[in-house]
Amino acid sequence: MGDLRAYAALGTAQLRSATSYRTSFLVELFGNMGATVFDVVTVLVLFRATPAVGGFSLREAVLIVGLSSAGFALADLTIGNVDRLKSYVRAGTLDAVLVRPLPALPQLLLMDLPVRKALRVVFGFVVLGLAVAANDIDWTPGRVLLMALTPIAAAAFFGSIFVISASLAFWWVDSGELGSAFTYGGRDFTSYPISVYGGWFRGLFAYALGFGFVAYQPALALLGRPDPLGLPAWSGYLSPLVALGAAALAAVVWRTGIRHYRSTGS
Amino acid sequence: MDQRDASVPTISRISPFRASATTFGALIGSGFRRYATYRQATIAGTFTNIVFGFLRCYVLLAVAEEAVGQRPAGYDAGQLALYVWVGQGLLSVIGIWGWTELADRIRSGDIAADLLRPIAPVTGFLAADLGRALHAMMTRFGPPLLAGAVFFPLHTPARWQTVPLFAVSVILAVIICFGCRYVVNATAYWLQDARGPITLWTLGSGVLGGLYFPLRLFPQEVAVALWVATPLPSLLQTPLDVIAERDGPALQAGLVALQAVWAVVVLALAGLVQRRAERRLVVQGG
Amino acid sequence: MIKMQDLQKHFTVRVKAGRLRRKKRTVAAVDGVNLTIERGEMVGYIGPNGAGKSTTLKMLTGVLTPSAGEVSVCGLAPVPQRTKLALRIGVVFGQRSQLWWDLPLHESFELLRHIYRVPAAEHAARLRRCRSLLDLDEFLDTPVRQLSLGQRMRGELTAALLHGPEVLFLDEPTIGLDVVSKQAVRAFLAELGATGDVTLVLTTHDLADIERLCERLVVIDHGRVVHDGSIEALHARYGSRRSLVADLEQPLPADFALPGTVLTAVTANGHRVTFSLESTTAAAAVAGLVAAVPVRDLSLLEPDIEDVVARLYTSP
Hints:
The complex is a heterotrimer.
Chain A: H1 2-18, H2 22-49, H3 58-78, H4 85-91, H5 93-98, H6 104-111, H7 118-134, H8 141-171, H9 184-190, H10 199-208, H11 216-223, H12 239-260
Helix pairs in contact in A: 1-6, 2-3, 2-7, 3-7, 3-8, 8-12
Chain B: H1 2-7, H2 16-36, H3 39-66, H4 77-94, H5 101-108, H6 111-116, H7 121-139, H8 142-151, H9 162-186, H10 195-209, H11 220-229, H12 237-244, H13 249-284
Chain C: E1 2-16, E2 22-37, E3 42-46, H1 53-60, E4 68-73, H2 82-86, E5 89-93, H3 105-115, H4 120-134, H5 149-161, E6 167-171, H6 179-194, E7 199-203, H7 207-213, E8 216-221, E9 224-229, H8 231-237, E10 243-248, E11 261-267, E12 272-277, H9 282-292, E13 295-301, H10 305-314
Parallel strand pairs in C: 3-7, 3-8, 5-6, 6-7
Antiparallel strand pairs in C: 1-2, 1-4, 8-9, 10-12, 10-13, 11-12
């Protein structure tokens, strides 16, 4: 209870500092939504040139991009800011976080909660809603449950990727943009049917790293479509398990990273 | 001794033009060396460029595969792949994102020191940016192109003028991009905080510059309007269309000429904005 | 209160070996430190740059994980019990702010009350005390980003004390401050130490901090403790002496000698002389000098700790 109160206080403080520059805040709020809008517009533009991508129609593709966008936007809002860890490590701000009586990760997230990304979440879920309406889904209890869990599992999965990518800074401060290959790259990867990707690249991202289970496999299960790549029909229901696995791995990497932290400067 | 005394009153035997060219060259060199120190970040950034190259290339090729006549927006598969990979290489050469130095200096007040230098801020920052672009051209352009060539069949330019035109187009694109970023950053002279305009720039420049997909996929009127009314397609779309030989020789050269016009317009605008801002600073006594 | 036993911290650094190759090398920032600090002590922890001062402090506060050795603060192990320990210690890192940049100072204090779960009445009482001792009132409503360095440091001190810590760690608390702020900070810490409830460990470059505040001095160099004791003990050990400076009516005779002293300087055309008191008392030396030549003015200089430490650092 005490901890929750502390977190709430931290969150409110961040909200107040963010809105202390009002004009910039509003521009950023809408600007950030624009980023998600463009992801969806890209899909629409591509489908102007072709009736199908990777064997999937526009309606089906929008369901995939909707699941991916909603999950990613949710993760980006709540956890995405952990990617600033490298600047905290470089500037030594992490020291101040570590001497407070709360776990470091939630503090870091709340210290800089990117409220400006809130509208992205709204937009992501609107697209998802439209996609669900546009597809003729045969609703079974299992599919309803899957529909409810998939965006959350996707958010948990992306959140874990954010944490793991950011933890890289504990070992390699100058990792620069490397993390975005997996965070934003992962979002781009999951925005399309994975049948568009070739050979080893698809194997690596979809199955070894698990991105195939974020949007593509659940979308197949919701649509009742067999996987052209041959995975069984129930594999779409694995997405919460894959997300749990990723979260467990992220926790281990984070803890190891904190132990490995070498504070710089005096 | 006599000789030295005699030479004092004459300012310099070097012509003023050559003197300022030397200064400009020195500034380019310092911009180059500054980025040369970020070796690890260069490696990390190159890796990321390559990953995004794979993602974009596969998607566009999948579009081509099922498009009518397999030529979406007039590109064949080899041209699309070249478009994507050269684009990934050029991304950090043009340097669309992440430059907030001017806005930061304005906010902290350090800009006052730049105003005291005998070289105009626009010129000084341009020289440094050209140095940065040169460094990026030598380190970050090649690897994505190489990766693309290894894993995808790339279009090979057939016309003799394509590569020289591409080189000119890239230089113009660097100048236009610098000018745009300068104007966006300079809003910090008026707004307390330029984060808003920078967000809008980051957003618009990527999509409307042609990074995510070729702008030719838009309806033709929209694409033409963007090209003529905004400098954004001149950032990436033009150099990429030039190297991919999307158009006939006349239009290919015409697009570069349009870039040249935009380069002049944008630099003039940056200069104007800077002069206005300086006058404002003087008036406010800030 | 604080125990360190053979405490070590190693860092691996990569050094260039040829154009592209890098060699790994292990550097011991802290190389076997043994220290025990009792409740209520005020300890100054000094050493040259890179000697391992801050690294030690960061291991004591749970920021860094020791490579080897034992460490305990308030009976807790800093890294595994970091959040528990945080409730019982206060930390001021001179160059890292604990405060919220965009918020007024008093809001940072209010936030810290929630984070440390301090009862409102206790919090208010401590804040009242700090406000009056540190003169916070004039800038309590100012956003932290607009505070001067001295004002910010007074805010940081308050922030570190609002939860009533048993141990206060200060890393360079006076660095970069103007003279007035330095004195305010020192006076406040002296007052705090006088109560005897708080154990105080501070690292500093400014030896005036130590002379004013700490009865115990720990000097560290190359990750090892080279001196642990009082300032006087340091002088005794490194042969620093008090000196007698005299302004004379006329220069000293060439063959003059003052028993038990060494003449270390003659300036102002022979009118000002400095004797180092090697094996005599100040009274005897003064008496001897006044008996031999007419003296206009006299002063006795305490040994300069700065010199001692400088000598300590430069000696191999």
